[in-house]
Amino acid sequence: MLETGDPRGEGTMSVPIRSEEAPGVLEGVRAVLLDMDGTLVDSDSAVERCWRTWAVRYGLPEEEVVAGVHGYPAPTSIRRLAPWLSEEEVADAAQLLLDLECTDLDGVVAAQGAGELLAVLAERAIPWAVVTGSGARLAKARLAAAGVTAPFVVSLDDVAVGKPDPEGYLMAAAELGVDPAACLAVEDSAPGIAAGRAAGMPVAALRGLDGELSITHLGELAAHLRRVG
């Protein structure tokens, strides 16, 4: 654990909650678990640059690569994009990508509304953590670049299986001592939403995806939490 200070419900598609109904969804929430890339941290431009560079190195179409990697652990995406690679070669490819990502932090900032949300969580003594599909090294680098200090982070290095498996979310809930059903997962990808739901958690979804609560930025979630209590 890094110390730092069915996709989209496939087959069971949910109806997004309207803003005025959000307090009902949040009433029993006792902890908030946030995805990192695209959720707590705006790293989209850096992620795209690194994957494009990686794609060129492996002779793969950049657009196809960039379009299909968000929300999945890098090794999972690499196996899908280059199925001819051996496991040793997958590890080498993932290491190349990691090196690119840890050195390209230009434009990595806290996501819109992140400061407001973290302030509300602090005011109300609501525990929170980061649950990311990135490894510990990259998580540490991007959170630092964004100026975010997390109580603790569950990274890809901490789990046997990454998202959409729920292991990371269940581990974070256990670390906080909060029942998974009382944790709110905040996500911006289909694999992440699936992971949160599989852990038995309500999900606040970004990027127009379907969650038990749909938000456009973290400031909206902060406002909803203020209304709850």
Describe the overall structure.
The protein is of the alpha/beta class and 229 residues long. The chain is 44% helix and 10% strand. It folds into two domains: 19-43 and 108-228, Rossmann fold (3-Layer(aba) Sandwich); 44-103. It has helices spanning 22-26, 44-57, 62-67, 74-81, 87-103, 114-123, 136-146, 167-176, 190-198, 218-228; strands at 31-34, 41-42, 109-110, 128-131, 153-154, 183-187, 203-205, 213-214. Helix 2 crosses helix 5 (87-103). 44% of the residues are buried. Residues 3-19 have low confidence and may be disordered.
Instruction: Specify the CATH architecture of the largest domain.
Output: 3-Layer(aba) Sandwich
Order of helices and strands: HEEHHHHEHEHEHEHEEH
What does the main sheet amount to?
6 strands, parallel
Low-confidence parts, pLDDT < 50 over ≥5 residues?
3-19
Chain-wise SSE layout:
Blueprint: H1 22-26, E1 31-34, E2 41-42, H2 44-57, H3 62-67, H4 74-81, H5 87-103, E3 109-110, H6 114-123, E4 128-131, H7 136-146, E5 153-154, H8 167-176, E6 183-187, H9 190-198, E7 203-205, E8 213-214, H10 218-228
Parallel strand pairs: 1-4, 1-6, 4-5, 6-7, 7-8
Antiparallel strand pairs: 2-3
Helix pairs in contact: 2-5, 4-5, 6-10
Brief digest:
This protein has 229 residues and is an alpha/beta fold. It is built from 10 helices and 8 strands.
What tags apply to this protein structure?
2 domains; 6-stranded parallel β-sheet; two-stranded antiparallel ribbon; 8 strands; alpha/beta; 229 residues; 10% strand; 10 helices; Rossmann fold; HAD_sf
